[in-house]
Predict the 3D structure of the following.
Amino acid sequence: MRQSGPPREAPEDPAFDRLVRDLAAAQGMPSDDPEFGEVVAAFRGLWAAVDAIGRIPIDPAREPAPRYGPRS
Amino acid sequence: MIPPTGPIDGLSVVDLADAIRRRDVTATEACDRYLERIADLDPTLNAFASVLAGSARDAAARADFALDRGLPIGPLHGVPMAVKDLFAIAGRPTLAGSVMREGDPPAREDSVAVARLRSAGAILLGTLNMDEFAAGLCTEHTHRPPTRNPWDLERIAGGSSGGSAVAVSAGLAAATLGSDTNGSIRVPAALCGVVGFKPTYGRVPTTGITPLSWSLDHVGPLTRSVGDASLVYRVLAGERPPAQASSRGEQALDGLRVGILPDSALRLSSAIVLRAFQDVIESVAGRTRLVEVDTPALEWSHPAAGIITAVEAATYHYADLRARPLAFHRGIRSELRAAALLPATAYVRAQRVRGMVRDRFARLFEVIDVLLVPTTPITALRRGDLEGRKLLGHFTQPFSFAGLPALTVPIDGPAERLPVGLTVVGRPFDDDLVLDVGIALEAIGVARTRRPTFAASAPAIS
């Protein structure tokens, strides 16, 4: 979580804005309040982090699938 | 009787516990003096969310009664402490810095950390201000007046355990507890000039704290010395009796393989922080073996830890994000709302990156015993400096992400004006070595806690 910093500028891209509003509406979250532009901007910031970790090369040999079951 | 060593508020936890045990001072006297100091100073500093004067005095009276009767006592017997506002305290709602929780029912039992403090004899003075739901590194995401740094009242205390750091720095409690997800013990401790210890992940139970991020949250102490941090940490970890702090002193440094990062990794540090850090490195160079190390794990940690924290926090607050999103503090609500919309694949990938980060740190610690880094790249910011905030977690987030033990100790900057923190990082479950190194740094004089000007000029309590 970006624990500090100023509210981001809402992006200019209307399609991105609409996508975020649709995602919120699909979950029953409010998306028509005056602040929702800040939510869109925050989503864009988080998406930048998603993009950043997407660029990290994951080596399956060193990083096998997680194991969640009981261990013997 | 007041112990001849000085005012009670200047005594370490270890010395105050000894003084109470010897009956040089009663638990009631110690409690009253801290409560007086809170009454004098806290209206300016805003460290406390609530002061539990009545129950603290009752507990102190019981502590004195136990000593009078020769009953068994714990290692923190009679020591006045306070905890961040997110630790459950039986009989009180756990507000976690939020107005949204004010109507909540009282907690049925203490959090494990509070229960262990009480079991060791500590007196609970109150709860301490924080960023709402621990989401922040400044203690400005709060519905209360901002918590102020005792070194400069116009500067931030750091967060989210800002009240915990200020209370120790200004002598409003002998020691405090905080929680740390991305740096929330270490950042405020560094900016306020006190010791802060984030143990290995899982070493201290988080049961009974309001979570920010279940898989990243840690609990730990803030104190005025490493010896105190060691004692409180051992109590929190459930050691009975707690092991003695290291007696090796400065010898803990001899032959130690100390990792330092290349200049490129420190480039975001201010000149003041860099100078103070380099002075420490020069001080330890003669008796340790310095090893320059670098790892992509540092860079990988920031986006991955950010995603995990945000998604776990949004999951915890999901019902409120749907029903009343504008009730959250404005500084945190947009990101929480946005995090609830991220795809699950982003979270899982971030957890896979976390595994890689742990692996890279494990390889790093094959060639070093501890790593030294500045705790924050900058000293305390002026309130409202939104741009500078982005730097605060730069050197803390990677180590909580990997679950490594990390201790911040105050070191002197060139100007000795605002505090600078140095962090000692160790392997998982090498908490004892990390604390030993902190004690050694105090022994050779490079780490020391100074009294802030504000608190020093305030009325003495003895």
In short: Residues 138 and 386 of chain B are 10 Å apart (CA to CA). Chain B touches chain A through 48 residues (CB under 8 Å). Chain B is about 35% helix and 15% strand.
